[in-house]
């Protein structure tokens, strides 16, 4: 219990809330179950609670590329702020159903995705979910942890797409169009495993945007995991993909495996540190240059003898 208490205290949760959950679940409760119960109780890490309170300075996790509003007030450089990170638009239905193994609409999956982007420093995060998911769950469409939707709505993160009932039948607006349209206008990133093929055919500009800005993901043991190479092996890294100002890696020249014994001269494509301050000539060119020098010296000697 002490190890679990220390772990969740480090994550920022209150000691009283953690003790209460551990008493309810028992000493053998899994860490995932404890975290799930803390979220269900509405307990928030202190870092998130402090966001609502105006503070002059705010701690930033090591490795985060965002600065706080407090630093901005002090006149710090704004180029490293969260403005350099792309807006995030999450397909709530896709993420929730993926976390629920396509059987249950798991709202906790949405919370995990939102927390992952928050920890990276993204300030603009929007989740789109159809309005009818607010209704009490039915047997054919079960929902887990529905209270999370209400909490995210209060934080202005969750947006419900319109739906209504006409003569007992549900009329639902196409939430995918909202997702793509907002992400396109904000020049952000779409978080979904859907390819939106119908919308790609509908608008050529959207087609390019979906191909270049779609971030797929996986859930591994209740952990939200996007790929390190969102556009494939030869594409940008995840950090560059999520950044408005990608940092290009420096090209390191590979040293020549032959070293000083290399006979390619200036035609060698590898790096030669010993040739930095001299003209890189091929062996044939060096021999030609030497013969020219020798022949010119021979001619001068002949002239001297004739004179």
UniProtKB/TrEMBL annotation:
User: Which UniProt keywords are listed?
Assistant: Endonuclease, Hydrolase, Magnesium, Metal-binding, Nuclease, Zinc, Zinc-finger
Q: What is this protein called?
A: ZC12D ribonuclease
GO MF terms on file? hydrolase activity; mRNA binding; RNA endonuclease activity; zinc ion binding
Q: Which GO terms describe its cellular component?
A: cytoplasmic ribonucleoprotein granule; nucleus
Which Pfam families does this one have? RNase_Zc3h12a, UBA_6
Similarity comment: Belongs to the ZC3H12 family.
Zn finger intervals (C3H1-type): 250-275
Q: Which cofactor does it need?
A: Mg(2+)
State the InterPro entries in the record: Rege-1_UBA-like (IPR040546), RNase_Zc3h12_NYN (IPR021869), ZC3H12/N4BP1_RNase_Reg (IPR051101), Znf_CCCH (IPR000571)
Q: Where does the C3H1-type domain start and stop, copy by copy?
A: 250-275
């Amino acid at each position: 219990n002490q190890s679990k208490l220390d772990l969740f205290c480090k994550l920022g949760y209150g000691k009283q809330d953690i003790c209460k959950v551990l008493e309810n679940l028992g000493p053998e409760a899994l860490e995932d179950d404890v975290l799930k119960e803390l979220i269900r109780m509405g307990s928030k890490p202190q870092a998130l609670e402090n966001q609502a309170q105006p503070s002059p300075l705010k701690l930033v996790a090591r490795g985060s590329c965002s600065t706080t509003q407090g630093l901005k007030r002090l006149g710090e450089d704004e180029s490293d702020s969260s403005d350099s990170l792309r807006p995030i638009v999450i397909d709530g239905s896709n993420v929730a159903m993926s976390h629920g193994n396509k059987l249950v609409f798991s709202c906790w999956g949405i919370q995990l995705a939102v927390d992952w982007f928050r920890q990276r420093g993204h300030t603009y995060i929007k989740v789109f979910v159809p309005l009818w998911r607010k209704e009490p769950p039915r047997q054919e469409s079960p929902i887990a942890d529905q209270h999370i939707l209400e909490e995210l709505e209060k934080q202005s993160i969750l947006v419900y797409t319109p739906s209504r009932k006409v003569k007992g039948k549900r009329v639902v607006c196409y939430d995918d169009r909202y997702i793509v349209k907002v992400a396109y206008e904000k020049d952000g990133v779409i978080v979904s495993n859907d390819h939106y093929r119908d919308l790609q055919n509908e608008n050529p500009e959207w087609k390019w945007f979906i191909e270049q800005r779609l971030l797929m993901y996986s859930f591994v043991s209740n952990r939200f995991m996007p790929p390190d190479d969102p556009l494939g092996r030869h594409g940008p890294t995840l950090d560059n993909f999520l950044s408005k100002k990608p940092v290009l890696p420096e090209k390191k020249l590979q040293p020549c495996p032959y070293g000083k014994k290399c006979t390619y001269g200036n035609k060698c494509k590898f790096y030669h540190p010993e040739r930095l301050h001299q003209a890189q000539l091929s062996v044939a060119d060096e021999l030609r240059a030497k013969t020219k020098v020798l022949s010119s010296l021979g001619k001068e000697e002949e002239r001297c003898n004739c004179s």
